Amino acid sequence: MISNEEKQWAMLCHLAALSGFIGVPYGNVLGPLVVWLWKRNDSIYVDRHGKESLNFHIAVAIYLTIAFILCFFLIGFLVLPVVYLMGLICTVIGAIKASNGEHYLYPFSMQFVS
User: Fold this and answer.
1) DSSP characters for the chain?
2) Burial, 111: exposed, middle or buried (Cβ in 10 Å; 0-12, 13-18, 19+)?
3) What is the pLDDT along the chain (114 residues), one digit of tens a residue?
4) What is the CA radius of gyration of the chain?
5) Which of 2, 48, 80, 94 is a plausible cystine mate for 14, CB 3.0–4.6 Å?
6) Other C-beta atoms within 10 Å of 72: how many?
7) What is the model's pTM?
């Protein structure tokens, strides 16, 4: 059984990434990293959600950087909002799944931390 505390910390692993969406530079990576490093040894459930969130947001940071570079070729102006919205929507879905005690695999994620 997954305790309510574990569900809350797993949900926080996802929601901590929202700091990057409100203007904190690389907050979408640093937020989940801090929560995951702090609570990863306390729960396998939190560890799994923290890794998943961290991997996805590292990938999003890479995608946003590429989209920014593509702005010099004008295509980035189309790609940038799509990547931003995808990151935001997937973060909220991940948080909801974590609070319900479900596992969530982010789309378009890469495995950096395993």
Assistant:
1) ---HHHHHHHHHHHHTTHHHHTT-TTHHHHHHHHHHHHHTTT-HHHHHHHHHHHHHHHHHHHHHHHHHHHGGGTTHHHHHHHHHHHHHHHHHHHHHHHHTT-----TT---S--
2) exposed
3) 899 999 999 999 999 999 988 888 889 999 999 999 999 999 999 999 999 999 999 999 999 999 999 999 999 999 999 999 999 999 999 999 999 999 999 999 999 988
4) 14
5) 94
6) 8
7) 0.91
d(CA 74, CA 35): 37
* Placement of tokens 């729960």 in the chain: 43
